[in-house]
Amino acid sequence: MAKKLYIKTYGCQMNVYDTNRMTDVLVPLGYETVDGPEGADMVILNTCHIREKASEKVFSELGQLRRIKERRESKGEKMLIGVAGCVAQAEGEEILRRAKQVDLVFGPQTYHRLPEMVTQALGNTTGRGISDTDFPVESKFDFLPEESLPQGSSAFLSVQEGCDKFCTFCVVPYTRGAEFSRPVKSIIEEAKRLVLNGTKEITLLGQNVNGFHGEAPDGKSWKLGRLLRALAEVDGLERLRYITSHPNDMDDELIKTHQELSTLMPYLHLPIQSGSDRVLEMMNRKHTADHYRKIIDKLRDACPEIALSSDFIVGFPGESDRDFAETIRLITDINYAQAYSFKYSPRPGTPAAGIDAQVPEDIKSQRLAMLQELLNAQQISFNQSMVGKNLSVLIERKGREEGQLGGRSPYMQSVFVQAPERLMGHIVEVKIESAQPNSLNGSVVTGDFDTLDRHTVNEKQTAMEARI
Ligand code: 5AD
Ligand code: SF4
């Protein structure tokens, strides 16, 4: 009988990707995935360390799992509990010390070793869980099996991991390790397999994805622009995206790729964190606000329709009213389609956590509210500017209402339509009729089957059948 596996994923897309790949490693061991921890033979928490109080949340979840595990054990059944991801990497020893119910702890770079770890954990009688949080010399990508399940019409593909930038607020360089780019050949092979299994859109992932510099079949090192061009040649791959980028790696070739490659969606998440040069310097971002503005100008020259997104931190230690005003000015000038914003919170072990001039909580809250009001207004007006336009939408999920399907516009907006389920997985043309702060509504434009899908004859046939 198949053993049941439940993986709970926290945090970024990179963790979603890692969860899928952990599943790929465990399926050959006889596991199949289930939707909850009750009755599971193995539960893995794939954790994220970015958000505040991340480890407390993990410990509270582990408390609930302990109760489930005790119930199973009282019936003579076994249940393994694993903690993976960035909290495991940063606080693995502490987890094993405090949470005796945990059988295995492993980091983002060692989950290819899960078969050995699971065998070891099943035979472990020491009363203490096992841990593997190395940064191994081997790359996990050389050991991971091929994907065991189709990843859906929109899939993630990890091309780069880790970060050497050491922004002073950030834990990533400590939890994900040094920058590493996968070889081009294995990326293209993975993309082809995804497309064969029905994927139409691939989002390339990396903590510093535009710092990609992978070894290519021509013996050279390719940067992200070159990789995107090669991926655009994969037959049946309709849409490409990448996330997350650093301004300093936004080179001219990549900007030109936005101009020339229609497969590359006109959307870019390019975090700046603050509009003040003084704060940017304290954050060790290694660029000025002006440099960022120049990159945005170049991007908009190359691709006028590009929608921009960013991350902002308010209340970084030492941030003055004047610094904050510069962030507001930058947001006003750039005009974002959407963005994420956070109050600074100290992460143990990072340089900024030790700075004396921490900003009081109430000031952080005031600044965040002001910044979000501005960003929300920009997002609403961006969404409203879509009303009356036709957008291509990749339909990928059911909506909340009866008969409703949802997908993403080229600009990453959620778009909902009333449409037959057979359109699932297709790219359709949608006339936008109304805009909400976080989504758009519209109707599928009938008629031209070319708008349903662009590629192979087979797909065109399906597209024709799918016409309303
Ligand atoms: N405090 C607040 N926000 C943070 N981020 C990363 N570290 C911190 C921190 N210590 C935010 C940054 C980053 C995003 C993923 O999370 O804006 O870009
Ligand atoms: Fe963290 Fe991004 Fe800075 Fe790297 S570039 S340290 S991942 S914020």
Automatic annotation (TrEMBL):
Name of the top EC class for this enzyme: transferase
Cofactor(s) for this UniProt protein: [4Fe-4S] cluster
Keyword Methyltransferase recorded: no
Keywords, ordered alphabetically: 4Fe-4S, Cytoplasm, Iron, Iron-sulfur, Metal-binding, S-adenosyl-L-methionine, Transferase, tRNA processing
Record InterPro entries: Elp3/MiaA/NifB-like_rSAM, Methylthiotransferase, Methylthiotransferase_CS, Methylthiotransferase_N, Methylthiotransferase_N_sf, MiaB_methiolase, rSAM, rSAM_horseshoe
The reaction(s) this protein catalyses: N(6)-dimethylallyladenosine(37) in tRNA + (sulfur carrier)-SH + AH2 + 2 S-adenosyl-L-methionine = 2-methylsulfanyl-N(6)-dimethylallyladenosine(37) in tRNA + (sulfur carrier)-H + 5'-deoxyadenosine + L-methionine + A + S-adenosyl-L-homocysteine + 2 H(+)
Domain MTTase N-terminal, first and last residues per copy: 3-123
Binding site for [4Fe-4S] cluster 2: 163, 167, 170
Role of this protein: Catalyzes the methylthiolation of N6-(dimethylallyl)adenosine (i(6)A), leading to the formation of 2-methylthio-N6-(dimethylallyl)adenosine (ms(2)i(6)A) at position 37 in tRNAs that read codons beginning with uridine.
The protein's name: tRNA-2-methylthio-N(6)-dimethylallyladenosine synthase
Upper taxonomic lineage: Bacteria, Pseudomonadati, Pseudomonadota, Alphaproteobacteria, Rhodospirillales
